[in-house]
Amino acid sequence: MTKAASELAHLFRALKAPAASRALPALADRAREESWSYERFAEILLSTEVSARESHGGESRIKAARFPARKTLEEFDFTFQRSVKKTVIEHLGQLDFLHAKENVILLGPPGTGKTHLAIALSIRACLAGQRVQFATATEWVARLSDAKRHGNLETELRRLSFIPLLVADEVGYIPFDPEAASLMFSLVSNRYERASMIVTSNKPFSAWGEIFGDDMAATAMIDRLIHHSEILSLKGDSYRLRGKDLDARIGAKPAQLS
Ligand code: ADP
Ligand code: MG
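That is the input. Now the predicted structure with adenosine-5'-diphosphate docked in place:
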């Protein structure tokens, strides 16, 4: 290593800029060949480091969000799931809904891709620099009920309101008792026009009365959720069972549903 190169390596270490350090030799060659201005060279070298850091931040936000799996919009097969338009999902992926503090509601039977889309949109948000928390509706209720027991419900709700996107997956998977229904309502109300939610449910809104114990509670909840929201109704068979002749499976090991 020349003296200049080792001095540079030292300076990059001091700056904690490994991506720029790695990119430097090739960039310097290109700069000489293409007679870049000093400003252009500086800009490209620094932006290498900045974009490495931003995507790194994205990774740490993805970890912090606690997704049950990693799913992307690119992996979503719109030829199998024809009840949602690719253009609509791509538009949601641009995250206007998040900046407008609106919600996304994904309804449909098991296996139709609700959780997949919820995660994929959330990952877009993480990569765009937004914090996300993913949990099932049951887990949210448990978390809030814990906070309430410790007299911290308000604090917890306020803390959560600073997270731009919460996912409440599987609303209706198990019915709520009145206490749980009221905690879920607090969560939704607290975020109203303040921060976004993505909510998934395998039950249509018409069946939410059963989930929340009574129609009044369900109506209040739905009202709050849908006032500013994009509602997507997914239809069709479970993706897990694609290409399988269901009749032929009778007597076979039941397919796993969730
Ligand atoms: P839901 O939440 O509606 O029950 P999931 O999103 O969990 O369904 O989907 C079940 C499995 O099938 C997941 O592994 C998901 O990634 C996959 N899947 C569902 N729909 C699609 C699709 N249209 N394209 C690609 N994978 C899909
Ligand atoms: Mg799901």
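The longest strand covers residues 165-171.
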